[in-house]
């Protein structure tokens, strides 16, 4: 059967990708200020509904990173404005008032559902700079492993227009690649893209966000900055790294759960290639290998069969000069190929650590970043892609 959106995408569509959303392990969920602070005040019932939805999907095993807007929206009234200011510095000041209020409301609401939250305020540099990118990645993965819900916003109080990502839809798309998430959800006050500038029927699924632009009238809500065009641009970024996006209505307290159950909610933008290997590809194509780590037979076995992290104890030698975050090849005895990964320490540090246990890292280096040389999340075992 031809899918109704087939014509739009310009080709025959395969069966709906919706069902595959149930397999997602890690998602980035962006909730706009129009949902959480529609009229310049934080809306406790919207925050409570978000916490409840999140608790349900978390109990189903989903790892979620939240990207939340609303700092400026929650801060301009206390600063004496009757609408969001346009001056850069006034916005920064409003954000510095609103961000702790927003976070306080989230912390309390999530705690009522037994969820711990963490805050990360990011700017464009945290994603563009490789060291900071990895630093953010390691912190986020650690939080997710611990069952905590990281909450991210742009560092609005300290970012001027040049340092800003600018809108949280875009920030959320970038965060998707920071954590290697398999799904991006953009929750706002619209139930997806509708034909004819919002007046027509909802478009359920497409392979090409650009084709949807013609259906978008570029109005934003009074509190949000992004609008639908920004959401589609974010969806294109995510699609470019193999990640699907769902644009849906965040005022529906069960939106997230229903998306993850494969229900026809919002607009799904599918990547051209969606084979579940976004994370693998991200590591594999990220850059060329800067060196090689040779491991002993025991470590080779653990990496190949148990999906273990690479620890210093199994390392026999290190070839090349590279910094923390570099991609390296991993080979076993006799040079047998094992895979590639992103290192958590520099080459000379790994040489000093090789053959030693994780407990010795602090004593040998004078600090300890993480216990693994390459964490499991940063490893791609198997033949080169
Ligand atoms: N970071 C801004 C805030 O919290 C919002 C940006 C956006 O709405 O995309 O106010």
Overview of the molecule:
- The protein is α/β, with parallel strands linked by helices.
- The protein has two domains: 277 residues, 3-Layer(aba) Sandwich (Carbamate kinase), CATH 3.40.1160.10; 95 residues, Archaeosine Trna-guanine Transglycosylase, Chain: A, domain 4 (Roll).
- Helices cover 37% and strands 16% of the residues.
- The chain has 15 helices and 13 strands.
- The strands form two sheets. The protein has an eight-stranded mixed sheet, sandwiched between helices.
- Helix 3 packs across helix 5 and helix 8 packs parallel to helix 10.
- It starts with 5 loop residues before the first helix and ends with a strand.
- The N terminus is likely disordered.
- The structure holds glutamic acid.
């Amino acid at each position: 059967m031809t899918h109704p959106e087939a014509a739009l995408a310009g080709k025959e569509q395969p069966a709906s990708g919706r069902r595959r959303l149930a397999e997602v392990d890690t998602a980035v969920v962006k909730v706009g200020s129009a949902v959480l602070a529609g009229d310049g005040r934080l809306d406790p019932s919207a925050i409570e509904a978000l916490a409840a939805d999140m608790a349900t999907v978390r109990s189903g095993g989903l790892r979620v990173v939240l990207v939340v807007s609303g700092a400026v929206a929650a801060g301009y009234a206390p600063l004496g404005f009757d609408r969001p200011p346009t001056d850069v510095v006034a916005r920064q000041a409003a954000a510095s008032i609103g961000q702790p209020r927003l976070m306080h409301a989230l912390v309390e609401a999530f705690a009522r559902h037994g969820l711990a939250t963490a805050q990360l305020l990011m700017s464009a540099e945290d994603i563009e700079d490789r060291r900071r990118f990895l630093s953010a990645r390691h912190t986020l993965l650690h939080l997710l492993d611990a069952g905590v819900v990281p909450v991210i916003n742009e560092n609005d109080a300290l970012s001027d227009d040049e340092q800003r990502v600018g809108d949280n839809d875009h920030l959320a798309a970038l965060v998707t690649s920071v954590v290697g998430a398999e799904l991006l959800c953009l929750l706002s006050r619209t139930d997806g893209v509708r034909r004819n500038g919002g007046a027509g029927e909802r478009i359920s699924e497409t392979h090409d966000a650009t084709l949807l632009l013609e259906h978008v009238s570029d109005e934003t809500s009074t509190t949000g900055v992004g609008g639908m065009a920004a959401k589609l641009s974010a969806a294109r970024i995510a699609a470019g790294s193999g990640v699907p996006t769902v644009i849906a209505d965040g005022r529906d307290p069960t939106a997230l759960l229903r998306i993850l159950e494969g229900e026809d909610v919002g607009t799904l933008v599918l990547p051209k290639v969606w084979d579940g290997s976004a994370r693998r590809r991200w590591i594999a194509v990220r850059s060329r290998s800067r060196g090689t780590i040779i491991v002993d037979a025991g470590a080779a076995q653990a990496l190949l069969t148990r999906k273990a992290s690479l620890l210093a104890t199994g390392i026999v030698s290190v070839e090349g000069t590279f910094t923390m975050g570099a991609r390296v090849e991993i080979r076993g005895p006799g040079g047998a190929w094992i895979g590639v990964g992103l290192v958590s320490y520099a080459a000379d540090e790994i040489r000093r650590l090789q053959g030693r246990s994780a407990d010795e890292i602090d004593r040998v280096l004078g600090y300890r970043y993480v216990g693994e040389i390459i964490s499991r999340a940063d490893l791609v075992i198997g033949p080169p892609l």
